Amino acid sequence: MRSGPVFAISKSLRAIAGALALSAVCASALAADKVVAVTSFVEHPALDAVRDGTKDELIAEGFEPGKNLKWDFQSAQGNAGTAGQIAKKFVGDNPDAIVVIGTPSAQPMVAATKTIPIVYSAIADPMAAQLVKDWKPSGTNVTGMSHMLDPVKQVEIIKRVVPNAKRVGVVYNPGEANSVSALNNIKGELQKAGITLVEAAAPRSVDVAPAAKSLIGKIDVMYTTTDNNVVSVFESLAKVCNDAHIPLIASDTGSVKRGAVAALGVNFYDLGRQTGKMVARILKGEKAGDIASSPSKNLELYVNTSAAQKQGVTLSPDFLKSATKVLN
């Protein structure tokens, strides 16, 4: 039978070891408690790239799904009612941060909670969407990344692809603040250049092709904003333009490989990486309201020579040389 100082020391060592083990378990449990809820209004290449970029950046920052992070992704499948239901679910789940991709998903989420940190992404105009008041730290529970584009540069691309264009067509969803804002921005710049904007409304994704067909014979070139309805069925829009030999210009680079002649826009995967950095800062203790919202400044020019041929466009060597990426 043990007794005396040796037994006391042994007992003390066991107690310390037990305490250390318990501390390690608690630390592991604490790390595993980090939960990021992510929702996208619809799944298409641009928004999917934002989602994937966000996840990859979180992994780079030390937050890995399945190990020390729970990653909960839900898509609204283009349905506003579903977006509202997801907002209620996420608020009930009370995660450490919520990532909202696309304006129609961001608005109901911001309306649903004033306490859970929200990081928006792929929002063309967060002020018009009433997510934040300006680019300064909001002081609320909201921050995020925007892909707002300079309309002057967008008009320049249109003129470089179709120098003599006088009428530009746009198919858009009048119910999406993101689209209406982008439309109004470019409309003013087109007017300055002596170019008329011809609009066609497409409230649903199934309306996109018919709306595009209604513009045949009325326009010289088709331009698309990052309207979620349009981008989700971009191939159907491209087919209309191919059949009618109407040059199609996009404002997101992901749409170029799907049939647009060209696009000067942000790299949406890179936008996701920047979004992930904001989320990581929140998971590490910063308040969303102390982090300033920001537009992405990394623009890239993508060109599709095959689409140009189908749509009857001859691209100048200088234009092709200035492209970040040329797809054949």
Automatic annotation (TrEMBL):
Tree of life domain: Bacteria
Protein name stated in the entry: ABC transporter substrate-binding protein
Keywords attached to this entry: Signal
Gene3D superfamilies, per the entry: 3.40.50.2300
SUPFAM superfamilies noted in UniProt: Periplasmic binding protein-like I
Keyword Lyase: no
Leader sequence residues: 1-31
Membrane spanning residue stretches: none
